[in-house]
Design goal:
The protein starts with a strand and ends with a strand. It has a single domain, classed as Pyruvate-ferredoxin oxidoreductase, PFOR, domain III (Pyruvate-ferredoxin Oxidoreductase, domain 3, 3-Layer(aba) Sandwich), CATH 3.40.920.10. Strands 2-3-1-4-5-6-7 form a seven-stranded mixed beta sheet, with helices on both faces. The protein contains six helices and seven strands, in the order E-H-E-E-E-H-E-E-H-H-H-H-E. By secondary structure, the chain is of the alpha/beta class.
Length: 183
């Protein structure tokens, strides 16, 4: 596998940081080397937010993401800001319910997942969109094992919500197989 860089982006309140923590924890369960960093605007909710995860088979000497292999965008503003950082040959996974326009960038793989709609309509909780997206990330990239991601979700979400979060994860696994576009 080598080194894989993942940037998850959106706005505060979408669970971007939690998604990064869960992905990093899953990579640790798989025995990988991993770093996770996060940044967000001064607003508690609604401001720009990102979480970065580096996963590697080797020791990580530089813990930050420069040119992500995987970019997850859960808002139009985040996509517009970060699309040009995605490396050629990289994969863009976007929440199609939150993004109306995909900026031009050639040489990338684009996957649309209706994460917010699935979380709201199928699961009754829009806040689960981040977990739906994580399921899609795993299904599309195999960056972590399914078992490790399920374990990380169970360990990371509030007690009593494990079952609904695992359902959200499963929805992400299923939805990732649809709407694959090559740009």
């Amino acid at each position: 596998m080598g080194r894989s860089e993942v940037r998850l982006t959106g706005f505060g309140g979408q669970g971007i940081v939690l998604a990064g923590v869960i992905l990093a924890r899953a990579a640790m369960h798989d025995g990988k080397e991993v770093t996770q960093t996060q940044s967000f605007g001064p607003e508690a909710r609604g401001g720009a937010c990102q979480s970065e995860v580096v996963v590697s088979d080797e020791p990580i000497h530089y813990p930050f993401v420069n040119e992500p292999d995987i970019l997850v965008a859960m808002s139009q503003e985040a996509l517009d800001k970060h699309i040009n950082s995605l490396k050629t040959g990289g994969r863009l996974i976007l929440d199609s319910d939150m993004i109306s326009r995909i900026p031009e960038k050639s040489g990338i793989k684009v996957n649309k997942v209706a994460a917010t709609g699935i979380a709201t309509e199928k699961l009754g909780r829009g806040i689960l969109a981040n977990i739906v997206v994580l399921g899609a990330v795993r299904s599309l990239t195999r960056i972590v094992s399914k078992e490790a991601l399920e374990r990380a979700v169970k360990e990371s979400v509030p007690k009593g919500t494990e079952e609904i979060n695992l359902k959200a994860l499963e929805e992400g696994f299923l939805q990732a197989r649809e709407n694959v576009l090559e740009k």
